[in-house]
Amino acid sequence: MKKIIYIFLTCIILTGISCKQEEEKEIKQQNSEMNITDEQQDFLGITNIKKLSAASKRALEWDMALGNEWFFEYEVFDLKGDLAYEEGVVRRDPSAMIKENGKYYVWYTRSTGPTDGFAGDIEKSKVFPWDRCDIWYATSEDGLTWKEIGPAVKRGDKGAYDDRSVFTVEIMKHEDTYYLCYQTVKSPYTVRVKNQIGLAWSKSIDGPWEKSKKPILSPADNGIWKGEKQNRFAVDKKGDFDSHKVHDPCIIPYNGKFYLYYKGEQMGEAITFGGRQIRHGVAIADNPKGPYVKSEYNPISNSGHEICVWPYNGGIASLITTDGPEKNTVQWSPDGINFEIKGVVKGAPHAIGLNRTADTEKNPTEILRWGLTHQYKTGDYQYIRGFRTWNKKHHTAKGESKE
Ligand code: AAL
């Protein structure tokens, strides 16, 4: 009997030893696959490279050459003139600024009056601050004091795809033509209404603008609503990331083509560990007027909200804000499609109108040094403000030397 117990215990001990050896072998294998250098271990302050926590494993995947040039802090400030806050008027979602005739130009969403929401008669009410809007524009000599010029693109006639609202506009100048791309909604503005993207063009910055006869981009049509009730969360199938709405369009000429970046909203939108399920996509065309073909790699982000993209170092950079696990990150892709995180910020201005006159190559975030943003005064009224950012180089105590 004693002998049997002895054999049994020996087996357990031997199995334990071989398990431990296996485990150590596996750790060594993992570490050599990760190729951890002494420098990496020192920079990341890892106690024991044979005992890597999940966090240390993630840190080891970071690019060690990464500096602070993608990291910034920011502040917002009031504008003067016609873009200063005005009671009863909504001005929001500014486009990028371009400079012509010695002046900055900006286009934006404009409406008047309070928001009623969806509870009443939607044929009469204003369901969102961006409902019943037209696209207006303003100019400024210094980017601070603005003069509102008037409407650039108005809602379409009854029955047109843009008869309810035109909003959230971006500007692109290519060769001798200006292009405005923007969101469109056709009446009635129900919670399940699909949002599309329209385009208008003009040889003159002051218009008149000619509108595309049809939207240039529409939501994916592979989602299925559940039941007839106006409930955007009830679905039999959610469909692609952009099955409900295509939003926040911005066209960038890139690699001889036109990259239309946009935000997708999905039917049956859920709240996940990063917040709302909002992701970005891209559609590519040979000509500014399209046809725009959605990339098969969509979605190209797993987070974000308003599109804020700019060319940098042969690729495209993107500021991701508001929603998703990667919100408040600055990302860059070498090909306009495959984005990696380059900087993580504490927060950033929303709905940015970039300064397209900036020297984008001077610094990865040079284009963010100053620009336009919008802010909620109340749920009913938003206004356009300025922002500025700076790279942060040191974290020092009062009186502490930076050297
Ligand atoms: C913004 C944008 C789009 C939405 C609404 C107005 O932040 O994402 O423009 O439709 O909110």
List keywords for this structure.
four-stranded antiparallel beta sheet, six-stranded mixed beta sheet, 403 residues, single chain, 2 domains, 12% helix, mainly beta, Tachylectin-2, Chain A, binds 3,6-anhydro-alpha-L-galactopyranose
CATH topology of the largest domain, which one?
Tachylectin-2, Chain A
Task: Determine the fraction of residues in helical runs and give it as a percent range.
Answer: 10-25%
Number of helices: 3
Tell me the strand percentage band: 35-45%
CATH homologous superfamily annotation of the largest domain: Glycosyl hydrolase domain, family 43
- In total, how many beta strands? 25
- What small molecules does the structure contain? 3,6-anhydro-alpha-L-galactopyranose
The number of distinct structural domains comes to: 2
N-to-C SSE string, H for helix and E for strand: HHHEEEEEEEEEEEEEEEEEEEEEEEEE
Unreliable stretches? none
Task: Label the overall shape.
Answer: globular
Q: What class would the helix/strand composition place it in?
A: mainly beta
What is the makeup of the main sheet? 6 strands, mixed
Return the CATH class of the largest domain: Mainly Beta
Q: Based on the coordinates given, report the CATH architecture of the largest domain.
A: 5 Propeller
